[in-house]
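look at this stuff:

>
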Amino acid sequence: MIGLGRRHIAAIGTQPHLHNGTAQLRTEGYRRALDRAGLPHNQDSQRPVHALHRADGAQAMYELLDGPTAPDAVFAFSDELALGALHTAHQRGLRVPEDIAIVGFDDIEDGRYSNPPLTTISPDKQQIAERSLQCLADRIYSPDNTVPPQELTVPHRLVARSTT
């Protein structure tokens, strides 16, 4: 979105009430990207959600659009959140991507059929499954059942569709 000239990029999906790390890593990546580009980010441009559902994304988008500086782009931490944000954008009469760009994360099938189709980050789901099962097997078969937690990183790719 930065490369497309967007300058007021918001994030939907921070989850300070959870401690699983995924939302924190996505928040960190969002902030780091804006810092590298010399763009501002503040708490007003980051919307927390209770869950990663469409309704949460829709509500967060309402809050962003009613905030002090309406975004020209939104990075949603899941495609479900992005679809909710897209719904609100349409309800408010915004054109996507002309007025606001929206990007999700997960590459769920519904995103391919939304109107317009959702740009997303597509993680390698096969590797996620394989590595998760390996972590589980390591834990099950460890002699004392104490395998330290691991941070797993898998390849991902941008799937550019019509929302950017």
Q: What stands out?
A: Strands lie at 9-14, 46-48, 73-76, 101-105, 119-123, 156-159.
